[in-house]
Design brief:
Oligomer: single chain
Distance between the termini: 31 Å
Largest sheet: 17 strands, mixed
Shape: globular
CATH superfamily of the largest domain: Zn peptidases
Length: 559
C-alpha cells in the first residue's frame, strides 16, 4: 500500500452531490446487501496470512509458498474455479537488480566540467539485466516534462532524435503550478504524465540512452531523502524480453541544485527552462553538454506467482469483471524495540487478500452473474506493482473484454464511517456505478483531497487503468460516525506512525471491523453491478486513458 491515508474530504460540489451527497451528511438507511460479506472469513484469513509463520509474505521466500497454498485452498472453498487454463497460478518472473559502486555523474563540455556525487546529488539505476553499466559521452537534452500526449496536442520530444542522448526531465505535469484543477493536464491534479514511471517509459520509447528527472520537493510530493532511500539498494522488476534491451541504459534523478548548476553552465537557469516547458509548442533544448557515469549490478532472479480464480458468467462469460488485491508484504525488516523483525502486513495487505476471498465467497453464494468475475491475488506490489503489471502486460483474459474492476488495498479498523474515500472520482463512467450503489449502504463519497499527489497511479489498479481498463480505487471512510474526521485522522496518523510497513502491523483481536466490513459490502455491490450490467464504462473525454480504451475497443470490437 504505497499511498498515505488521507483524511480531509473535498468540499461539496456538483459531482459529489450526484454521488449521493457530501461526505459527513447521513443518507438513507442502508438497504440489505444481497449476500453479506462474512466477517468470520475476513477475520480468519487476515489472521492466518498475518501470522509469523508466513514470515511477512515476501516474494521468493518460504512465506510465498505458504501464502500461495493457503490462497488456493480458500479460493477453492469459496467456490472459484482455477483461472488460468486449469491452473490457479500465473507465473511472474522477477529480477532484483542492485546497483553497486554507483559512480559520480560527470557533466562536461566547452563551458563546464561538473561532477555530481552519487547519493547527495544524483541517484541512478538501470532496468537492463546487465552486470556492468557505462554511459559515455551522451548528449544532454532538456525535454521539458517529457510528455507525449496526442489527445492534448502535446509533444515534448517533437523534432529530435533521442537515440544515444540523455533526457533531462522535469517532475510532475506542465500545469502543476495551477491553484485549481483546471488546465490541459488537470491543473494541480497530477495525471499519469506527471509520474516518474511514465517519464522513464516515454524516454525509452523515444530511444534515449538515459533519463534524468529533476527532483523538486513540492511538485514531486516528497523530499530528496525519499529518492535516496527508495532508489538505492535492491530494485525489483519484472523480467523483460532480451533482458530489457529496449529500456534506457540509465534511469535516475538529479537534485534541483545540480540541475541549476547544469543550466547555469550553459548561460540560462532552471526557472527559465521550466517556463518554456510549460507553454504549448515547447520544443526540446539541446544543452551543448555531455554526460558520463558507470556502475556495476548484482542480479538475483525470482520466480513468483499471481493466484487466479474465476466465477464463469452465465450469459456473457467472455466479458470479465476483475477483483484485485496484493498478497505480498515486506518479509523480514528492521526489528522493533521488542526484537520482532517480521513485517506481518496485517492491514497491508492480509486484509485485502481476506476481502478478496470473502467477496469470492459471497458472489459464489449469490450465484453466477451474466459476466464472469475474476479474482486475482497479486504478487510484488510492494516492489512496484509488479504482479499487476505483469498480468496487465500478459493478460489471461483480454483487457478489451474486461469491463472494469476494483482493487482492495488495506482498510481502517475504526467504528462505522459516513463515507468512503474515492480516489479518481470524476475520471471515468464508473462514477455512475458508484452513485447507484452508495445509497444502498447509506454512504457518501469523499473525493481525493490531494489530487496533486497523483495517488490514483500508486496501487495495483493502475496497471490496468494505464491500459484502458476503468478501475475503482476506493478506501475506507474517514468521516467517522463517532468522532467525525478528527477521529478518522487520529486512527490513520497512529497507523502510519506506528504500524505501516513495520513489525507492528499485526492482527489485533480487538479491531473494530465495522468500517471495513461496510466498505467491502460496497465492493460486493459494485462487482455484482458490473457483472450484471450490459454497460461498458469508459473514461471521461479528455482523460489520459480514454484514447487507449477507445483504440483497443475499436480494434477488437470487444467493448
Amino acid at each position: 500500500m504505497e499511498r498515505p491515508a488521507r483524511i480531509i474530504a473535498a468540499p461539496c460540489a456538483a459531482l459529489l452531490l450526484a454521488l449521493a451527497g457530501c461526505a459527513g451528511v447521513p443518507l438513507a438507511q442502508p438497504a440489505a446487501v444481497g449476500e453479506p460479506i462474512s466477517l468470520d472469513t475476513l477475520k480468519e484469513v487476515t489472521q492466518t496470512l498475518a501470522a509469523d509463520t508466513f514470515e511477512g509474505r515476501a516474494p521468493g521466500t518460504p512465506g510465498e509458498d505458504k501464502t500461495l497454498a493457503y490462497l488456493v485452498e480458500r479460493f477453492a472453498a469459496a467456490g472459484l474455479q482455477p483461472g488460468n487454463n486449469g491452473s490457479w497460478f500465473q507465473d511472474v518472473p522477477l529480477v532484483e537488480i542492485t546497483a553497486e559502486d554507483l559512480g559520480a555523474l560527470n557533466v562536461y563540455g566547452p563551458a563546464a566540467d561538473l561532477l555530481f556525487a552519487a547519493g547527495s546529488d544524483w541517484i541512478g539505476v538501470t532496468y537492463r539485466e546487465q552486470e556492468s553499466i557505462s554511459l559515455h559521452d551522451s548528449e544532454l537534452v532538456f525535454v521539458g516534462y517529457g510528455v507525449v500526449a496526442p489527445e492534448k496536442g502535446w509533444d515534448d520530444y517533437a523534432g529530435i532524435d533521442m537515440h544515444g542522448k540523455t533526457a533531462v526531465i522535469l517532475v510532475n505535469d506542465p500545469d502543476w503550478r495551477s491553484e485549481t484543477d483546471a488546465g490541459p493536464f488537470g491543473g494541480r491534479a497530477m495525471t499519469y504524465y506527471g509520474r516518474w514511471t511514465y517519464k522513464f517509459e516515454e524516454a525509452a520509447r523515444q530511444g534515449a540512452a538515459a533519463a534524468l528527472i529533476v527532483h523538486d520537493d513540492y511538485p514531486a510530493g516528497y523530499g530528496w531523502n525519499v529518492v535516496e532511500r527508495s532508489w538505492t539498494g535492491p530494485q525489483s522488476h519484472t523480467r523483460k524480453e532480451n533482458g530489457g534491451e529496449a529500456q534506457t541504459l540509465v534511469n535516475g534523478w538529479i537534485d534541483h541544485r545540480a540541475a541549476e548548476a547544469i543550466a547555469g553552465a550553459v548561460g540560462t537557469n532552471l526557472a527559465g527552462l521550466a517556463a518554456q516547458a510549460e507553454q504549448a509548442g515547447f520544443r526540446p533544448v539541446p544543452l551543448g553538454l555531455k554526460v558520463s557515469t558507470a556502475f556495476d549490478n548484482s542480479l538475483r532472479y525470482i520466480d513468483s506467482k499471481n493466484v487466479v480464480g474465476i466465477l464463469p458468467g452465465s450469459e456473457r462469460p467472455g466479458e470479465y469483471v476483475i477483483h484485485t488485491a496484493h498478497w505480498d508484504h515486506l518479509g523480514h525488516c528492521p526489528a522493533n524495540d521488542a526484537g520482532d523483525d517480521i513485517c506481518n502486513g496485517a492491514i497491508d495487505n492480509a486484509l485485502g487478500s481476506a476481502a478478496l476471498v470473502a467477496l469470492a465467497e459471497a458472489q459464489a453464494k449469490t450465484g453466477p452473474a451474466p459476466r464472469s468475475m475474476v479474482f486475482l491475488a497479486l504478487t510484488a506490489e510492494e516492489q512496484g506493482l509488479l504482479g499487476s503489471e505483469y498480468y496487465a502486460a500478459h493478460p489471461i483474459y483480454p483487457l478489451d473484454h474486461t469491463v472494469g474492476g476494483l482493487n482492495i488495498d488495506g482498510g481502517a479498523m475504526t467504528g462505522p464511517a459516513r463515507d468512503v474515500d474515492v480516489i479518481g472520482l470524476g475520471k471515468s463512467e464508473l462514477d455512475k456505478v458508484l452513485a447507484r450503489n452508495l445509497a444502498k449502504l447509506g454512504l457518501a463519497a469523499s473525493a481525493d483531497s490531494a489530487p496533486q499527489a497523483g495517488y490514483y497511479y500508486r496501487s495495483d489498479h493502475f496497471s490496468f487503468a494505464r491500459r484502458g481498463v476503468p478501475m475503482f480505487n476506493i478506501k475506507s471512510g474517514q468521516d467517522l460516525v463517532d468522532g467525525g474526521r478528527e477521529a478518522g485522522a487520529a486512527w490513520n496518523a497512529d497507523y502510519r506512525a506506528n504500524r505501516y510497513h513495520a513489525p507492528d502491523d499485526e492482527y489485533d483481536p480487538a479491531w473494530d471491523w465495522r468500517n471495513v466490513q461496510r466498505q467491502f459490502d460496497l465492493f460486493y455491490l459494485l462487482g455484482r453491478d458490473l457483472a450484471t450490467s450490459r454497460d461498458w464504462p469508459n473514461w471521461v473525454p479528455g482523460d489520459e486513458f480514454r484514447r487507449i480504451r477507445d483504440e483497443s475497443c475499436a480494434a477488437s470490437g470487444g467493448c
